[in-house]
Amino acid sequence: MTLASMAFTLPAYHMPEPERIAPISPPQAAADGVEESSDQESVRLMLRVKEGDVKAFERLVELHQSAIIGTCARMLNNIDDAHDIAQQVFIRVWRSAPRYEVTAKFTTWLFTITRNLVFNETRRRSRRKEVSMEQENEDDPPKHFADHSIPGADHITQQTELEQALDKAIAALPEKQRLAVIMRRHEERPYEDICAALKMSLPAVKSLLFRARTELRKHLAAYLGEDVE
How far apart are CA 191 and CA 202, in angstroms? Predict the structure, then answer.
């Protein structure tokens, strides 16, 4: 089956929405053996995909779609865009399969693809916003944009207010800091994956995360005090 014929049947079109983003908390890392076994399974599946095995590809999507959608949703703050980018990630995985070589962990490779596509999208948004602002006429009436990430006032509680404040604080971070925080705290990825995705050394990634957490503390001080962890 060719990519063109299977594009509209990819499981990515039926990806579930990620759960609401929870406040930052210390990751509960899986045992090394469990993570290694999971990655080995993904590598075995990818090697079958390399031979054109569509069932193996569908299984790969099932295993990783939730993490990829969650990462994209937190980076872009839009679930529809997250689904679109996640689908592009898996299409790129399929297209890259003939050239795939086991040179790193599968998840490292997958998150690197995700990083490239998400950063492309954030930069595209930035350019579009700049053009839109330049085209606005000062005499035009002010435009109002609905924020669909905020629930109705009747349902706002202290917890949802905290989640909204966290979403806003993460969204305000520079893109590399934002991706590092999401991969480390929400997706519980090891430093190895973050270093590979961002093409940075371990000390540089740790410094990046330190700066990001400092900024988050400033934004969330009213809710959590000095420490957001």
Answer: 7
- Spatial separation of the C-alpha atoms in residues 21 and 9, rounded to whole Å: 28
Q: How far apart are CA 156 and CA 151, in angstroms?
A: 7
> What's the CA gap between 216 and 229, in Å, rounded?
10
Question: pLDDT digits over 23-78, tens only?
Answer: 333 344 444 455 557 889 999 999 999 999 999 999 999 999 999 999 999 888 88
In whole angstroms, give the CA distance from residue 142 to residue 94: 45
42, 35 contact by CB (below 8 A)? no
Tokens of 65: 């779609």
Q: What is the pLDDT of residues 178-201, one digit of tens each?
A: 899 888 887 788 898 899 889 899
